[in-house]
Amino acid sequence: MTYERREIEIAGSRLVYHEAGRGRPLLFLHGAAGSGALLPALAPLAACRRVIIPDHPGFGASAEPAWLDDIHDVAYAYLDLLEALDLRGVHLAGTSLGGWIALEIAIRDATRLAALTVIGASGIRPGDIPTGDLFLWSPEDRIRNLVADPALAERLLAVPPSPEQQEVAVRNFFTTAKLAWEPRFFDPTLEKWLHRIRIPVHVVWGAEDRLFPLAYGQRLHALIPGARFTVLDRCGHLPHAEQPERLRALLEAA
């Protein structure tokens, strides 16, 4: 299934999104690395879903709007997107930074949402749980630390990025820092409002996640009333890279 690249104006700024398939809408929000690796990993879902994968404001091909100050701005932009595309009964999903954004969306307005899946999501206060630091890791360390399988890490490192990919990576990293530098990958106000999420929630975590360890996922799960929790064995922070078939099955079942 081939994605169509589309553009829409949100609050006066260009937002690029990739769409494929028909059926119940799945809006999937990417992590700090951007949408690139997600597109092939989720493409098979287009056989039964309307798959929509945006580039966040300031990421990828989307413009960096003057109004982008924090994670809340991204959440409101996506609420505008849901209205602009008149999406209803949406399965909202997100990984890592995208999972955090998805949580911020759901506590504000879930009227257009039917279900929520967050995968290795950031956003809550880590407390005494030691987490990794994406900003201090070198590009090579990031790859090695984000996947559980050393052989996969070596294969990924063996493929050098193109100049265009490097440019996008720098842009994504800069915007991630703008949204998550201080405090590091959490919103001090998020936890007290997670009880507002009254749609079915599925929290998915890699058992060997070194960025946000399993204990972090267990804490997030405990903060969301009635949420399901699934642990992916032999998986790090990037299930779409390490266990794409399992991830697709979980998304399709939601």
Give an overview of the whole structure.
The chain is an alpha/beta fold and 254 residues long. It has one domain: Rossmann fold. Strands 1-2-4-3-5-6-7-8 form an eight-stranded mixed β-sheet, with helices on both faces. Strand 7, helix 7 and strand 8 form a beta-alpha-beta unit. Helix 2 packs across helix 3. The protein is globular and about 45 Å long. The model has no long low-confidence stretch (mean pLDDT 97).
Chart the SSEs and their pairings.
Blueprint: E1 4-10, E2 13-20, E3 24-29, H1 38-42, E4 49-54, H2 71-84, E5 90-95, H3 97-108, E6 113-119, H4 139-146, H5 150-157, H6 163-180, E7 201-206, H7 214-223, E8 228-232, H8 239-242, H9 244-253
Parallel strand pairs: 3-4, 3-5, 5-6, 6-7, 7-8
Antiparallel strand pairs: 1-2, 2-4
Helix pairs in contact: 2-3
Task: Provide key terms for this protein.
single chain, 254 residues, alpha/beta, Rossmann fold, eight-stranded mixed beta sheet, 8 strands, 35% helix, 20% strand, globular
Shape call = globular
Strand composition percent: 15-25%
CATH topology: Rossmann fold
The rounded Rg comes to: 17 Å
What is the ordering of alpha helices and beta strands? EEEHEHEHEHHHEHEHH
Structural class by secondary-structure content: alpha/beta
Instruction: Order the strands across the largest sheet as they lie in space.
Output: 1-2-4-3-5-6-7-8
The total beta strand count reads 8
As residue ranges, the low-confidence spans are: none
Helix content: 25-40%
CATH top-level class: Alpha Beta
Please name the CATH architecture.
3-Layer(aba) Sandwich
| The CATH H-level homologous superfamily | Alpha/Beta hydrolase fold, catalytic domain
Q: Termini separation (Å)?
A: 21 Å
Query: How many structural domains?
Result: 1
